[in-house]
Amino acid sequence: MLTQNLGYPRIGSHRELKKICENYWAGKTGYKNVLQVGKNIRHENWKLQQEAGVDIIPSNDFSFYDHVLDHSLTFGAIPKRYNEVILKKGNSELDLYFAMARGYQKDGLDVVAMEMTKWFDTNYHYIVPEFYKDQPFKLFSTKIIDEFYEAKQLGIITKPVLIGPISYLLLGKEKEAGFEKIDLIKNLLPVYLDILTRLVSLDVEYVQFDEPFLTLDLSEKEQKAYEYAYKEIKKAFPKLKIVLATYFEGLDNNLDLVTSLPMKVLHIDLVRAEVQLAEVLRRLNEKTILSLGLVDGRNIWKNDYDHSLSLINHALQKLGEDRVWIAPSCSLIHCPVDLENETDDKHLSPEIKQWLAYARQKVAEVVTLKKLITNESPASTTQKLEENKKALSNRKTSNLIHNPIVKERVANLDDSDAERLSPFSLRKVKQQSLNLPRFATTTIGSFPQTTEVRSWRAKFKNGTYSQKEYDTLIAEETAKAVKWQEDIDLDVLVHGEFERNDMVEYFGEQLDGFAFSKNGWVQSYGSRCVKPPIIYGDVSRPHPMTVKWTAYAQSLTSKYMKGMLTGPVTILQWSFVRNDQPRSLTCTQIALAIRDEVSDLEKAGIKIIQIDEPAIREGLPLRKAEWQHYLNWAVKAFRISASSVKDETQIHTHMCYSEFNDIIQNIADMDADVITIETSRSQMELLDAFANFQYPNEIGPGVYDIHSPRVPKREEMVHLLKKAKAVIPSDQLWVNPDCGLKTRGWDETKKALIEMVEAAKEMRKTE
Ligand code: GLN
Ligand code: ZN
């Protein structure tokens, strides 16, 4: 029995990768230093896995920015617009690579970056390959071969990791009409064969092909492509040991296809889809090894050894020792690096810490599970088993986790708790008492989080500022923002969110049941890392979270001040969530906490309250068959959070997502009085989903893109609003930017909003 790892975090245990890359981009360090830091991280990772006792250690899991982009560079899938970057004297392969990731604006060249999107249902973003009709591929970067050789020099025979050819193509996007990306397999496959030839000449033993698409719904054409590609590989390299890695879901109806593919080892995800084990064991080919993905690569909880051992034993009975491997469920890049870096009890108490495992600890868990089965060093492993049992039983019964009041409140919920008092048509009449003009103007919530504002928070956190000093600064900044919004004549004001570090963290820090790590960084994209909150226990709200600042801002103006909250689904989606109860239940608990906040805001005299849900769409399960179940509980959670108020109180929600067509019914079911959405970059096309559906409630389609500092012209916004008015009745329309303005500077923000207000006034004249 062997252990394998599918991928180790590459950010470095102290985010060394982030630091060196950002220094390089800022021109503060040289090319060689960047390469050296990359090398150090790889060596550290390999050594650490070797010392932990992992049998099959991955290579090519390192990346300076993104592993999908690495593959595009490897295969020479480089869009033509980068030719000038390639040709420019002095530019290295790394410069080209970063140009593809981030765009290139230097010395008169101005080339835009490639698009970025989410990696399946994770919070990791990859650079989307761009495909053209009949596109040729050729081996451009030899990274994968170089890194295998590099490890070999250190005496470690690694298992190179490649995104499989079909998944690579499916991850990309057709940039012109007249072909399907999957047709490119014939052009692409020779490059894979080229790479394999080189690896084989260096005595590679195992090669891992990541094919996560095998856990998704596949068309017939895609299934055929799978058969074709893997048969060709087998034909060219009959002795190569292929590890076919699937993860994030079960194989389900693709199981026949998968078992027909030539491979030495099949890896399956038993954390996401434990139920598939029995069927896979029944149908697996006689000689195939099964790699059991037992240790959760997507979360931070300790493995339940007893449970894993029972699954391993089940597999062993059927397959025997030689045909069972043990592994994490997927690559560990979705976990923080090392729990040992959490040295601050204020952040993570020892009680909570004993329930957790980060990547390094997960690698050790995989090895311990093997030793428990093979009876290697029985004394120390038995002790580890006992410690594991103790930690898990402590977690089951801890007072930190279980709050009977919360459980009772959830149990007593009934359907009426998710219903506003009256239907929207009646609420709309009552809300006319708000006396808002047509094309009412507002913003999405945040105003610029300047370096200064962030420095106040840093100084407050490190004790330089007292609470009082910090509050005074925030109050002044808020007052300035309120005054300025009045001056330019916006209709519905916001307080600006200056007191918030992040839209989830700010709430998590005030809710019971949440913990915050100090070093739990996970790569989000490129050098950007996030530190998701950890939801470990029943969630409740010990005190109001936003009332003070909202009421203060309201007291400064006679206009309406919009209360600003993050919705339950978004809080859930952007956190590490407890795994001892269904996500839907945790979401409902958060919804009740937000509901209490909504009630308190209403009591404090706030008449308009926005509950942001930008993450509703990204929570969709990978398989369509499960969408409805998710949408049911997610929409219900939002409704629970929003439904305690009077008819006259206006509830807004906000989403910055580009696709509404397939979930428009569910968005309507959320029944917010007003929804603001991102639409400007698609020239209002995204509004069509709402128009076709005859969406009944009010809508604020974003009239300008907040991702760029460019100040939009008044006529452009009038033009967009006219387009909107052509498809949505004007008494349903609001005027607002695409999203919050926290990443913008004040200068461009002011100019843009002045124009926006004037654009709305122009629209009113035409009424
Ligand atoms: N209210 C938040 C803000 O303006 C919304 C952010 C978001 O949609 N991502 O920053
Ligand atoms: Zn947004």
Automatic annotation (TrEMBL):
Zn(2+) 1 binds at H654, C656, D669, E678, C739. Pfam families: Meth_synt_1, Meth_synt_2. L-methionine binds at I444, G445, S446, E497, D612. GO terms for biological process: L-methionine biosynthetic process; methylation. Gene3D superfamilies: 3.20.20.210. The active site is at H707. L-homocysteine binds at I444, G445, S446, E497, D612. Zn(2+) binds at H654, C656, E678, C739. It is an enzyme of class 2 (transferase). Its cofactor is Zn(2+). InterPro entries: Cbl-indep_Met_Synth_N, Cobalamin-indep_Met_synthase, Met_Synth_C/arc, UROD/MetE-like_sf. One of its GO terms (molecular function) is zinc ion binding. Residues 439-761 form the Cobalamin-independent methionine synthase MetE C-terminal/archaeal domain. 5-methyltetrahydropteroyltri-L-glutamate binds at R15, E16, L17, K18, K118, N123, R528, C529, W574, E618. Residues 3-318 form the Cobalamin-independent methionine synthase MetE N-terminal domain. Pathway: Amino-acid biosynthesis; L-methionine biosynthesis via de novo pathway; L-methionine from L-homocysteine (MetE route): step 1/1. It catalyses: 5-methyltetrahydropteroyltri-L-glutamate + L-homocysteine = tetrahydropteroyltri-L-glutamate + L-methionine. Keywords: Amino-acid biosynthesis, Metal-binding, Methionine biosynthesis, Methyltransferase, Repeat, Transferase, Zinc. Its EC number is 2.1.1.14. Binds 1 zinc ion per subunit. CDD domains: CIMS_C_terminal_like (cd03311), CIMS_N_terminal_like (cd03312). Catalyzes the transfer of a methyl group from 5-methyltetrahydrofolate to homocysteine resulting in methionine formation. Belongs to the vitamin-B12 independent methionine synthase family. HAMAP family: Meth_synth. This is 5-methyltetrahydropteroyltriglutamate--homocysteine methyltransferase. The gene is metE.
